[in-house]
Design brief:
This protein has about 80 residues and is mainly alpha-helical. About 25% of the residues lie in helices and about 0% in strands. The longest helix has 17 residues. The chain is flat, with a radius of gyration of 26 Å.
Length: about 80
């Protein structure tokens, strides 16, 4: 009974904290500036541009499921431990 009360309070706190997200535009803190413009670019990037992930940072994954089992190819680096 005691654990279920703690669980209920924890769930209520989690729901309350979930609604606390800030939806305003991002701005640099007072006294801080955005980074300088990259080499070859005339304008500074906006905060949203800085938060966008580049394709190299978040590559797309291919989910190719195997239809049947296959034998593994020989691995020349799969050596037994030295002992």
């Amino acid at each position: 009974m005691r654990n279920s009360g703690k669980l209920l309070i924890g769930a209520a706190l989690a729901v309350a904290l979930a609604g606390c997200g800030q939806t305003a535009d991002l701005k640099p803190r007072a006294g801080h500036l955005l980074p300088v413009a990259p080499l070859g670019r005339d304008t500074k990037p906006s905060p949203t541009e800085l938060l966008d992930l580049k394709p190299q940072a978040a590559p797309e994954r291919t989910v190719e499921l195997r239809k049947r089992s296959e034998d593994r190819a020989d691995d020349p680096y799969d050596l037994p431990p030295e002992g």
